[in-house]
């Protein structure tokens, strides 16, 4: 028994599979949610809200994997391997009273442009509408935090076994500037010959090469 990454299927302890459709930023319409629930009912699966703002179908039999994806008619969300993962973003200015910036627009744009790009190690992106940082921006490889003057960008953060707080790269960016800099950071990282995540790479090799990203 094994994972089927190309089918977005992860083997579970009991021999069944977890499938995770793409739910950008955790935003889903009532109709989409109802459809997801109907598919889960049909295949007798559980639904699990994940820490990455997705909804996993758990308990899928191996022989049902293709049929479930056909019924769902959704993109695969839990991308395996070293690549840019789906950005995590909070509700931001559109819904949250504390929000200083529109996280939904830039989060969707970032997903659309960079999701799945191959990189030396995984790249997680967190976008928070204010300093409360509900999307854990300081613990992501690339983190954006909304302020009254614009976006603050942090790089090199990570959670997990060896948590690392990202370093402040620049602040007061407008949406276009932030998007462009996210692209530059990913472009820089994807051609590096390294097994390390971005934060460790900067730590080991210093800021000099990386800082050229800002030019
Ligand atoms: S980070 Fe700020 S804007 Fe986003 S949900 Fe938290 S409090 Fe609201």
SSE map:
Layout: E1 9-11, E2 17-19, H1 30-42, E3 46-49, E4 55-60, H2 65-72, E5 88-89, H3 103-114, E6 125-128, E7 142-147, E8 150-155, E9 167-173, H4 175-190, H5 198-205, H6 208-211
Helix pairs in contact: 3-4
Task: Give an account of the 3D structure.
The protein has two domains: 5-72, Alpha-Beta Plaits; 88-214, Sulfite Reductase Hemoprotein, domain 1 (2-Layer Sandwich). It contains six helices and nine strands, in the order ββαββαβαββββααα. The protein has helices spanning 30-42, 65-72, 103-114, 175-190, 198-205, 208-211, and strands at residues 9-11, 17-19, 46-49, 55-60, 88-89, 125-128, 142-147, 150-155, 167-173. The protein starts with 8 loop residues before the first strand and ends with a helix. The mean pLDDT is 93.
Keywords:
215 residues, alpha+beta, Alpha-Beta Plaits, Sulfite Reductase Hemoprotein, domain 1, 2 domains, five-stranded mixed β-sheet, four-stranded antiparallel β-sheet, 19% strand, globular, binds iron/sulfur cluster
Net shape: globular
Which structural class best describes the helix and strand composition? alpha+beta
Attached small molecules = iron/sulfur cluster
Mean pLDDT across every amino acid position: 93
Can you tell me the number of structural domains? 2
* Main CATH class of the largest domain: Alpha Beta
Q: Output the CATH topology of the largest domain.
A: Sulfite Reductase Hemoprotein, domain 1
The main β sheet shows up as: 5 strands, mixed
- Taken as a percent bin, the fraction of beta residues is 15-25%
Relative helix content: 25-40%
Low-pLDDT runs:
none
Cα radius of gyration in angstroms:
18 Å
The number of helices is: 6
Structure summary, number of beta strands: 9
Order of helix and strand elements from N to C terminus: EEHEEHEHEEEEHHH
Ends distance? 49 Å
Superfamily (CATH H level) name of the largest domain: Sulfite Reductase Hemoprotein, domain 1
**What is the second-level CATH architecture of the largest domain?**
2-Layer Sandwich
Strand order of the largest sheet: 5-6-7-8-9
Quaternary structure annotation: single chain
